[in-house]
Amino acid sequence: MLLEFVRWLQGYVYFKIIGKSPERFINIVTKNRLTIWNTVKKDSTLYASMYVRDYKDIREFAKKSRVRLKIVSRHGLPFFIKKYKNRVGVLVGVFVFIIVVYIMSCFVWTIDVTGLETISYSHLLSTLKENGLYVGAYKKNASFITISRDTMLDIEDIGWMSINVIGSHASVEIKEKAKSPKVENTSVPANVKASTDGLILSINTYQGEAFFEEGSAVVKDQLLVSGVVEDKLGGVKLVRANAQVIAQTTHKQTFEVSKIINTTGFKEEKTRKRLNILWLDVPFSFAFADEKASAMRFQNDSLYLFDTFLPVSVSTQRLYEKQYKEKALNDKKAQEILLTWARLYECFNLSDAQVKSRNYEFFESDGKYTLECTFLCVEDIAYKSEIDAKNITIDRVLQSEKENTQ
Amino acid sequence: MKNSKDRKRGENKTRTNAVKELFYELPQLQFDYNKEVVIEGSKGVLEYTQQLIRINTSAGLMCFYGKSLNLKCISSSELIINGYIEKVEFIA
User: Fold this and answer.
1) Looking at the domain assignment, is residue B2 inside a domain?
2) Three-point CA angle B11, B17, B19, nearest 5°
């Protein structure tokens, strides 16, 4: 294959040797250290191939051996160039094509990222760009080890990272750090208090001294289980109280909406398109940014061929103007809006509680609609309040000393 | 004693030289079964047809009989014959 390519590069002719003793001609040629190959004898004619530069010197040998030579076909680059010598455009085109392919292969065309879980894709791409890896980056100047190291320093959540560049495609592999779970510091003594007002339905004390029983009503921040307990010898011991206190609670929330509301809409003002080829950014129009525009939408459409995104894309920039409108609400619409807010409140604020019943009161007053919501819930109201251990011990010591003196 | 040793050394030298000469002058043949043969030390092609190729070497003539015989490549001292070789004849 390589030999054939070398022959093609140098150019060769396939010719026929006509005469009585073609063997003699072959011997003379080979004695003069000229290479001849692919000799085939058909009937009385001998066919052979020879480099074009050698063929020019064998006329003399043909005369000596009394044979006639006739070229059958010409092959190789010199003949190709000669053929297209007058067609300069074709040659220039071929040359330009080779140059363009070479230049384009020096840049990163596409970036593919795998292994992202919590890190934002766009954040990673912008960090990579800051560190030197982006679509259109010059490959030969880029040190991918340095880029990956700098990116890992910039984004702390990355545990391991590798950048592999195959051709013009950069593949970024990422393994995110495994976050350590929050471990409760059990060495600090604590009391259990009520997070909200409620009626205790059940109380399970795991550690500490419970102050209430089932059926007791408690208010917010009231001490439920104490972390200060007496030991068997009558001394005072500080522990981290722990308990599950299930209580019936009531949550009240009021939502209001005025009868006339301001709505915001967007009106499309201008569209600007740009052609992006690697780092090259060509605008389709020379329109400048409109100062009135208060919102912008950006869309990038890349050329996709043979399962590959090519570095040619059209980016569309749409500018929108903000429009304010006043809108009058009727009862039905207002109720709908307020109920939606109530549902959202229930979803986000009462997610840990079990809502047993809901009561909505809708009324209209002073140019606004009001919705009063009452949620009857069952939930764990216990929360831990850490004890300042130093003060407690000093107080207790002083108290015990007083008792001793008395 | 010295003379006899020198004589022996001289004899050995002449022997090795003779072997070397023989080795280098004799044509070397390398067969790829009966499909192809590489001949090193040829001195020219005497006859070339599709059924018979006669080669001149320092050791004598070599005849390759067969079908569709071709000279694949020829240089000043080497040549490759391919085709279907049926018989090889050495004429000293």
Assistant:
1) no
2) 105
- What is the rounded distance in angstroms from the CA atom of residue A236 to the CA atom of residue A228? 7
* CATH, domain A2-82, list 2.30.42.10, 3.30.70.260, 3.40.1190.20, 3.90.1150.10: 3.30.70.260
Q: pLDDT at residue A112 above 70?
A: yes
Q: Which helix (H) or strand (E) holds B75?
A: none
Name every residue whose Cβ is closer than 8 Å to that of residue B50 and which is 6 or more positions away in sequence. A41, B67, B68, B69, B70, B83
Q: Which residue has the higher pLDDT, A254 or A403?
A: A254
CA neighbours closer than 13 Å in the CB half-sphere of residue A344: 8
Give the domain CATH number at B53. 2.60.40.2000
Token pair for residue A117? 């879980």
Asked if B67 has any chain A CB less than 8 Å from its own CB, the reply is no
For strands B28-32 and A12-19, give the pairing: unpaired
**CB A23 to CB B47 under 8 A?**
yes
Q: Please enumerate residues of A whose Cβ is less than 8 A from a Cβ of B.
A: 22-23, 26-27, 29-33, 35-41, 46
- Fold for the domain defined by A110-176: Ubiquitin-like (UB roll) (3.10.20)
Question: At A383, phi and psi to the nearest 5?
Answer: -140, 150
Written as one letter, the residue type at B43 is K
- Considering only alpha carbons, which residue of chain B is nearest residue A34? B75
- Report the residue of B47, B55, B64, B75 to disrupt the A interface, i.e. the one with the largest count of A CBs within 10 Å: B75
In DSSP notation, A282-296 reads: EESS-PPPPTT--EE
| pLDDT tens-digit series, residues A352-385 | 899 999 999 988 888 889 999 999 999 999 998 8
3-state secondary structure of A27: helix
- DSSP reduced 3-state for A398: helix
What angle, rounded to 10 degrees, do the helices at A144-154 and A121-131 form?
A: 130
Contacts of B67 in chain A (CB under 8 A): none
* 8 Å CB contact of B74 and A37: yes
Q: Considering only residues B23 and A209, tell me which one the structure prediction assigns the higher pLDDT.
A: A209
pTM, 2 dp = 0.47
How many angstroms separate the CA atoms of A327 and A267, rounded?
Answer: 17
ipTM over 0.85: no
Residue A290: Cβ-neighbour burial (10 angstroms; 0-12, 13-18, 19+): middle
- The neighbour count for residue A288, using CB atoms within 10 Å, is 8
Specify whether the CB–CB gap between B78 and B92 falls below 8 A. no
Digit-coded pLDDT (tens) for A176-233? 988 888 887 778 888 899 999 999 999 999 988 888 888 889 999 898 998 888 887 8
